[in-house]
Specification:
The structure is a single chain. With 234 residues, the protein is α/β, with parallel strands linked by helices. Helix content is 48%, strand content 9%. It has 11 helices and 6 strands. The protein has a 6-stranded parallel sheet with strand order 3-2-1-4-5-6, sandwiched between helices. Strand 2, helix 6 and strand 3 form a beta-alpha-beta unit. It is globular.
């Protein structure tokens, strides 16, 4: 029998096509406030909490880098963009959630975004009510890349993290999932897999629909498939 009994989704870059918005808004915010942020730096802090992002930026740009001012302006720019353009889903969500429901596989969200804002953006993307368990970055003391959020999400599913698959798009999210002892599937968004990812991860998928065969290879969904085959033969 498979030891995988639950799925935990990151939100931005996995369910919602929002990481590209955050990326551009980091650059714009820094430029407006007089800081020369590089594209590499903006990509580096994806899913990263303030406790890790602040020292990273100050190491690059000096102790006078006003992280919170830049971050707050970035948040304003993101909100303005989304208010004007909306939020798009990533491809394959419907198919993967249907597979989870048919396989009896419970699922949750573990996002660096606050829970209230996550719910708002899921609604804008047409995903309201699709995720019964949402753990936001405001609900844990230590955000990604620390493991806390995945530990809380696994607990919400009443499962040990070792029996959960974490679906992530960024290196910081991958570190968080692995540190929580989850099985991690990478669905790359803005950057390709890193060296060694294929060896340390449960799998790598091009999109969420392609996560399904990875789960099936672990034996998930076999019982439901067998049940349907028996019914069809009656």
């Amino acid at each position: 029998m498979s030891t995988i009994r639950g799925l935990i989704f990151d939100m931005d870059g996995v369910l919602l096509d929002t990481e590209k918005i955050y990326f551009h808004c980091w650059l714009q915010s820094a430029k407006e406030l007089g800081y020369p942020m590089s594209e590499e730096a903006a990509l580096h802090v994806r899913s990263c909490c303030a406790a890790h992002a602040l020292p990273y930026f100050r190491q690059l740009y000096g102790e006078n880098f006003d992280y919170f001012k830049v971050r707050d302006r970035r948040r304003e720019l993101v909100s303005q963009y989304i208010a004007e353009h909306g939020v798009e889903q990533k491809s394959g969500i419907a198919e993967l959630l249907q597979f989870c429901r048919e396989s009896g596989l419970p699922y949750a969200i573990a996002t660096a975004t606050s829970k209230e804002l996550a719910e708002q953006r899921l609604e804008l993307a047409g995903l309201a009510g699709q995720f019964p368990q949402i753990v936001g970055g405001d609900q844990v003391l230590h955000g990604k890349p620390d493991p806390d959020i995945y530990l809380v999400a696994a607990k919400a599913l009443h499962l040990p993290p070792e029996q959960c698959v974490a679906i992530e798009d960024s290196p910081n999210g991958v570190i968080a999932g692995l540190s929580a002892h989850c099985n991690v599937i990478l669905v790359p968004d803005l950057t390709p897999p890193e060296a060694g990812d294929r060896d340390r991860l449960f799998g790598i998928a091009e999109n969420l629909k392609e996560v399904i065969p990875l789960l099936q290879a672990a034996g998930i969904g076999e019982k439901e498939h067998a049940k349907k085959s028996c019914i069809g033969s009656l």
